[in-house]
Amino acid sequence: MYCRNCRQEVPEQAVICVACGCSPIAGTMYCQHCAAETEPSAEVCLNCGVKLAKPLPEGAKSKLAAGLLGIFLGGWGIHRFYLGYIGIGIAQIFVTLITVGFGAIWGFIEGILILTGSINQDAKGRPLVD
């Protein structure tokens, strides 16, 4: 694998390129598979045909993490806190306490909605990533 920022070869599981200090997929100048130059907006490498890795948006939240938090800890609003919806998270805590735990169904259903894509963005409007 090659760093998309500086074209240096990096291990497959590298999180940081030791040559430039960036995430290997943070750049848009080179193909991660063959190190050929690429256009910043390209979806695939014209040299080798591989799909180009795209950097994650800053602060991106995981759809899987949010969904599982909703299913297992939804009654406490943990998934809503994770997504930045502080007010709704607090409301879910109160509903769960007042209903002696039955409010957890709310969080469970939201967890399923997150995993199926019906809830697909965080409090700042950023899309959830797979």
UniProtKB/TrEMBL annotation:
Keyword Repeat attributed: no
One protein family per Pfam: TM2
Keyword flag Transmembrane helix: yes
Ranges for domain TM2: 60-112
Transmembrane parts of this sequence: 64-83, 89-116
UniProt GO cellular component terms: membrane
InterPro entries: TM2
Keyword terms of this UniProt record: Membrane, Transmembrane, Transmembrane helix
Membrane topology, as annotated: Multi-pass membrane protein
Subcellular location: Membrane
Record's protein name: TM2 domain containing protein
Natural source organism: Syntrophaceticus schinkii
Taxonomic lineage: Bacteria, Bacillati, Bacillota, Clostridia, Thermoanaerobacterales
